[in-house]
Design brief:
Elements (H helix, E strand, L loop, with lengths): L11 E4 L5 E6 L8 E9 L8 E4 L8 E5 L5 E6 L8 E8 L8 E4 L8 E5 L5 E6 L8 E8 L8 E4 L8 E5 L5 E6 L8 E8 L10
Antiparallel strand pairs: 1-2, 2-3, 4-5, 5-6, 6-7, 8-9, 9-10, 10-11, 12-13, 13-14, 14-15
Length: 209
């Protein structure tokens, strides 16, 4: 799910078995079956769903589409048209050397509207690079260590729980508890404040979005 039109509500997006990406407009917000109007085909040829990401890199409120190529290059296409069929404009190379899509996350840690990129390292360290330039080639500035001890990438999520524009870090524990740490400092080394239990009974992290 991602906000494609910039209205603050996330659209529902499905990567089909044939490689098409189909999106449904969020017309009603938080409601049962809120999707309105006809669906839009917003991509073709994306046969590996694990390599597809959506994040607002430009800071305009509309999510870009990002793909991790087999050679480790991250390519992003600018969302020029919002919720429309094939809305993508120019592409940019925004990263190299990212071989494992399961270790990549995008989230706005600083609260400036532009998503940072994060990498969960094999030793459990989470490294984040500040999005200094928006939608540009290799827009990343300084790197910060924002976590340690996260050896299972599938259990790590980022989302703005507090509503202040800065993403919290969320982890699904082996006992099924979902724990979040408040983003108190923004884009800083280990910016997390107090933790809160968000849920229980979620033993399969792949089912938590």
């Amino acid at each position: 799910m991602a906000d494609l039109d910039g209205d603050g509500r996330k659209e529902f997006i499905s990567v089909q078995p044939n490689g098409d990406i189909v999106a449904w407009y969020n017309a009603l917000g938080f409601a049962e079956m809120p999707w309105g109007g006809d669906s839009k085909k917003i991509g073709v040829g994306f046969t590996d769903p694990s390599r597809v990401f959506f994040a607002d890199l430009s800071g305009d409120g509309k999510a870009e589409i990002i793909v991790l190529q087999p050679d480790g290059v991250l390519t992003a296409w600018y969302n020029a048209l919002g919720f429309e069929a094939m809305p993508w404009g120019a592409s940019k190379t925004i990263g190299t050397g990212f071989s494992d899509p399961a270790r990549i996350r995008f989230a706005d840690l600083s609260g400036d509207g532009k998503a940072e990129i994060m990498s969960i390292q094999p030793d459990g360290t989470i490294t984040a690079w500040y999005n200094a330039l928006g939608f540009e080639t290799m827009p990343w500035g300084a790197a910060k260590t924002v976590g340690t001890g996260f050896t299972e990438p599938s259990r790590v999520l980022f989302a703005d729980i507090s509503g202040d524009g800065k993403a919290e870090i969320v982890t699904v524990q082996p006992d099924g508890t979902v724990t979040a740490w408040y983003n108190a400092l923004g884009f800083e080394t280990m910016p997390w404040g107090p933790s809160a239990t968000l849920g229980a009974g979620f033993p399969e992290p792949a089912r938590v979005l």
